Amino acid sequence: MPEQAFSDASPSAIAKAMEDAWSCFGDFRGKPGLERGAFLRSIARNLEKDADELLALADLETSLGPDRLGFELTRTVTELRSFAALADSGKWEEPRVEKAEPDRTPLPKPGMRTVNLPVGPVVVIGACNFPFAISVVGTDTASAMAVGCPVIVKAHPDHAGTCEALAEMVRSALEQTGMPAKAFQLLHGVDHAVTRALVEHPRTACVAFTGSLKGGHALMKIANGRSKPIPFHAEMGSLNPVFILPHALEHKGEELAEGYVAAVNLYAGQMCTKPGLLALIDGPGLNSFLESVRKATWGTDPTDMLNRTVFEDFNAVTKDLMSSLELLASKEDAPGQRSRPALCRIFQVKGLEYMENQDLRSEAFGPASIIVRCSDQEELMQLARSMEGSLTATIHAHTDDASLAQALFPLIESRVGRFLWGGFPPGVIPSIATHHGGPWPATTDPRHTSIGLYGYRRFVRPVCRQGFPDD
């Protein structure tokens, strides 16, 4: 990874950035939607123009590879244009109108009109594993600016150079389209004090965070502990359980094993939707399924993990698991000279043992997962009842599993934001129907999505005008 020399933002620089954002809020929110849309499209064009340089820099800093990064950059450009169209249309205001009835008895009814308004300066704290789509110009930033909120991005120190390059493209777009110069700002900081100061600052109206449960929980406490608490929208850790029902296991065991291992290893397991747990019932097809998992694991080709911190954390968590669980399959003897190899590790444990040990619910951010073997249907149901909130859950069922599947549906749906029938949880496809969220500890507010068109709802609040003239 290239050496970068970006100094941590000083307390005075943070204070100035927040005051500048607040000072331009009225001007930025007052711009016609078509002008904010033109601004977002200008950013998209800048990204496309310098795509090769961006991809090379991001690959140096993250080791994600040009194919993966190219897909992500394309997604980011598409999202910018999607939110540009939203700004053009003004549909984010979602007006609700109630006509006046002055002659109504026994009391007249006033007219009312409710619309969404932008909340104010938004602090964005992006992820290490998505340097484009959940970073400087990702959904958080694009959706907040589409509705008129100035944005202050805290650069991720593990791809700070990429963050700075993206920020320069946004600054250029601000100038190209005549937007207020401080409607977007980037601050660097390795020290956690920088992030804390941004969340604590009285001009911060809202925070969007993507990262670990530990980090998100700490920042949520700060946001809630302010003299004037603010919304804190965090996407954090998630186990994303997969349930394979008995007849599906018996009929499609080998196919499911290969799909499961592939999902665990997707992009070295550094995905918030990676299946961290697979639940099934001991019975016909189990042994052949486990053998297929072993073979698929041995066939994986490890790549480098994002950075040294992620690599060391992954090894620490999985080594703790090795002390208490059976390691079913692993790829420990990977060839090559990789400095941060993502070695796949699949564990297995009995259902009751898993439910009794809360430590087994910690996310291993990387290519690791636990197969939980339940003794019967009731134990599988008990496991489902014990699950914490996740971004996704998946169920695989055969027609003969219908009654068990129907019993599981309400339990699973109450604990996730996205429920998959078949397949395995891939990356999120941004769209109008996307919901990327879930109950705690997946997020701090399961009503909102951090991906897709409706991500803007985190950065607006409804205001009702009552009794105003029609004009």
Describe the overall structure.
- This protein folds into two domains: 11-236 and 443-466, 3-Layer(aba) Sandwich (Aldehyde Dehydrogenase, Chain A, domain 1); 242-421, 3-Layer(aba) Sandwich (Aldehyde Dehydrogenase, Chain A, domain 2), CATH 3.40.309.10.
- It is globular and about 70 Å long.
- With 471 residues, the chain is an alpha/beta fold.
- It has 15 helices and 15 strands.
- The strands form three sheets. It has a seven-stranded mixed beta sheet, with helices on both faces. A five-stranded parallel beta sheet has the order 5-4-3-6-7, with helices on both faces. Strands 1-2-15 form a three-stranded antiparallel beta sheet, with no helix packed on it.
- Helix 2 crosses helix 7, helix 3 (51-62) runs antiparallel to helix 7 and helix 4 (66-89) runs parallel beside helix 6.
- Helices cover 43% and strands 16% of the residues.
What labels would you give this structure?
Aldehyde Dehydrogenase, Chain A, domain 2; 5-stranded parallel β-sheet; alpha/beta; 43% helix; 471 residues; 2 domains; Aldehyde Dehydrogenase, Chain A, domain 1; 15 strands
Q: How many extended strands? A: 15
Side by side, the strands of the main sheet go 10-11-12-9-8-13-14
Helix and strand content put the structural class at alpha/beta
Supply Rg.
24 Å
Q: Provide the β-strand percentage band.
A: 15-25%
> How far is the N terminus from the C terminus?
59 Å
CATH secondary-structure class of the largest domain: Alpha Beta
CATH superfamily of the largest domain, by name, is Aldehyde Dehydrogenase, Chain A, domain 1
How does the overall form come out from the CA principal axes?
Answer: globular
Number of helices: 15
Order of helices and strands: HHHHEEEHHEHEHEHEEHEHHEEHEHEHEE
What is the average of the pLDDT values?
95
| Largest β-sheet summary | 7 strands, mixed
If you consult CATH, what is the topology of the largest domain?
A: Aldehyde Dehydrogenase, Chain A, domain 1
How many structural domains does the protein architecture include?
A: 2
What are the low-pLDDT stretches, counting only 5+ consecutive residues below 50? none
